[in-house]
Design a protein that fits this description.
- The chain is mainly alpha-helical.
- It folds into 2 domains: 64 residues, Arc Repressor Mutant, subunit A, CATH 1.10.10; 139 residues, GntR ligand-binding domain-like (Four Helix Bundle (Hemerythrin (Met), subunit A)).
- Helices cover 67% and strands 3% of the residues.
- The protein is built from 11 helices and 3 strands; from the N terminus they run H-H-E-H-H-E-E-H-H-H-H-H-H-H.
- A 3-stranded antiparallel β-sheet has the order 1-3-2.
- The radius of gyration is 19 Å and the shape is elongated.
- The termini are far apart.
């Protein structure tokens, strides 16, 4: 099998509950617009305007917005409108702590359960990430970043942790919006990922957990949070 081509892709977001194909289409459209920053925090989402833009009735749009509310990407405004969720410093810090706790569980278990094929595919992802860094392709790099972390979680032989980490993907993506990376940041991330993968391959749980700690605490959205969300991430 050619792992470069045949490896599993990123875990897709959960389908919009209670809806069919049209609700799914509306869900994916709004979710994508939120995660790329086209719909900023605090933006009011009006069913009628979205339905008209998508050429749909209001029913599938309403179902999609309810799914995004349940996912946590939207909030209910003072007039009960759906609005794009913002992140207070306390909320942001809580998300970081939850993610770190889940990642530590997945890495600990993956150290005991990863197969040779799992490790091989992680090395494939590292090569792809390095190519994305060389090309300056931030979007591809972030997709591969998420895929690597979720691949480790799926190799942990756990059920709940991979599901919860997958649900956190949207929050992590939102927390990256607006961050400014120093030159060479992407290559540093590749090296941090490599340290995690090397420790997993060696079955060295303490080293894997330490490499994970270093990685999560130098991520650009953590550094921006410490600097008040406005500073440039430094080495």
């Amino acid at each position: 099998m050619d792992l470069e081509r045949d490896g599993p892709g990123p875990v897709p977001p959960a389908p919009a509950p209670g809806g069919g194909r049209l609700a799914r289409h509306a869900y994916e459209y709004v979710r994508s617009e939120v995660l790329r920053g086209a719909l900023a925090a605090g933006t009011v989402l009006k069913e009628g305007a979205l339905a008209q833009r998508l050429g749909l009735s209001k029913t599938p749009v309403r179902q999609a917005l309810r799914a995004l509310l349940q996912e946590g990407l939207l909030d209910v405004g003072p007039r009960r409108q759906m609005v794009v969720r913002g992140f207070s410093p306390d909320y942001r810090q809580e998300l970081l702590e939850v993610r770190e706790a889940l990642e530590r569980i997945s890495v600990s278990h993956a150290c005991r359960s990863m197969t040779v094929d799992d490790i091989d595919y992680l090395h494939v992802l590292l090569r792809r990430q390095r190519r994305a860094a060389e090309a300056g392709d931030d979007e591809c790099f972030i997709e591969l970043d998420e895929e690597l972390h979720l691949r480790i979680a799926r190799a942990s032989d756990l059920r709940v942790v991979p599901e919860f980490l997958s649900r956190l993907r949207g929050f992590v993506r939102l927390m990256r919006l607006g961050t400014r990376r120093y030159r060479g940041h992407l290559f540093r991330v590749v090296e941090e990922h490599k340290a995690i993968v090397d420790a997993l391959e060696a079955g060295d749980e303490p080293a894997a957990l330490e490499a994970l700690r270093v990685h999560l605490h130098t991520s650009e959205y953590v550094l921006d949070a410490a600097a008040g969300y406005g500073g440039e991430a430094k080495g």
